[in-house]
Amino acid sequence: MKMNNGIKCVFLGTLLAICSLAVQAQAVNFPHINTTGYGEVLAEPDMAEFSVQVVMVQESAEQAKQKADQVVDDFLQQLQALGVPREDIKSGNIQLLPQMHYPKNAKPEQKGYRAVRKVKVTTDNLDMLPKLMDTALKSGVNRIDRVQLGVKDPSKYQAIARSEAIKDAQLKAKSVAEGFAKTLGDVWQVNYQAAQARPMLSRTMAMDSSERANSYQDTTIVIKDRVEVIYKLK
């Protein structure tokens, strides 16, 4: 059954009125205080991820693919020889693209093919990072992306940060209530959204092994949390 415009307008108006009444019914109509608590904890990284890229340009697509695959295979073998488990190594599919040349005042022309493969490595041995990246470069890898430092069990640190946020909200609410000669009552509402599941810290790769090794020392990750609470006032 079709509805004419008049009936649609009446229906929409009724729906908006019902929604408005529902919002008003949930409004806080008693003395209260709204506070936001913040908490954070410092964690030492115990794992890292880094990605590398192999880019090869050859006259034919087949040649470019073979060169890229050869570098990746060599890199994977060396990683496993260094004790990196195969499940901690993820190699992506190859991408084959025409290699274009754009001369000035002339039409673009194709100059062979470009093959690209990516490899992601995860390790829980931070002392091995410089050696792993040097191994990548010696294998023929063209690019090492940023290293991401993290923690294997972020939920443990997140729980501590959450607890600190709750304490912070309680202390703020109690202090403000006492400042106005009021007594803090029961919690009326809590608004909480979980933070990111896996905190990571990106670091740019240093130029040589000694600098890279030093750049991972005394590094900490700040894990934060927050909670919003509405307390009743007596």
Fold blueprint:
Layout: H1 5-25, E1 32-43, E2 47-58, H2 61-81, E3 89-91, E4 95-101, E5 109-123, H3 129-138, E6 143-150, H4 154-179, E7 184-191, E8 200-203, H5 209-215, E9 221-233
Antiparallel strand pairs: 1-9, 2-5, 2-6, 3-5, 4-5, 6-8, 7-9
Helix pairs in contact: 3-5
For the largest beta-sheet, the strand count, sense and barrel status come to: 6 strands, antiparallel
**Annotated CATH topology of the largest domain:** Alpha-Beta Plaits
What is the helix/strand order?
HEEHEEEHEHEEHE
Helix content: 25-40%
Strand tally: 9
Q: How would you sum up the global shape?
A: elongated
Number of helices: 5
Reported CATH architecture of the largest domain = 2-Layer Sandwich
Q: Could you tell me the strand content as a percent range?
A: 35-45%
CATH superfamily of the largest domain: Protein of unknown function (DUF541), domain 2
* Uncertain runs: 7-25, 206-210
Number of domains: 2
Rg is 29 Å
Helix/strand-derived category reads alpha+beta
The chain-level mean pLDDT equals 83
State the name of the first-level CATH class of the largest domain.
Alpha Beta
Distance between the termini: 55 Å
Task: Provide keyphrases for this structure.
6-stranded antiparallel sheet; Translation Initiation Factor IF3; Alpha-Beta Plaits; alpha+beta; 234 residues; 3-stranded antiparallel sheet; 2 domains
Describe this structure in words.
Strands 2, 3, 4, 5, 6 and 8 form a 6-stranded antiparallel sheet that branches. The protein is an alpha+beta fold and 234 residues long. About 10% of the residues have low confidence. The protein contains 5 helices and 9 strands. It is elongated, with a radius of gyration of 29 Å.
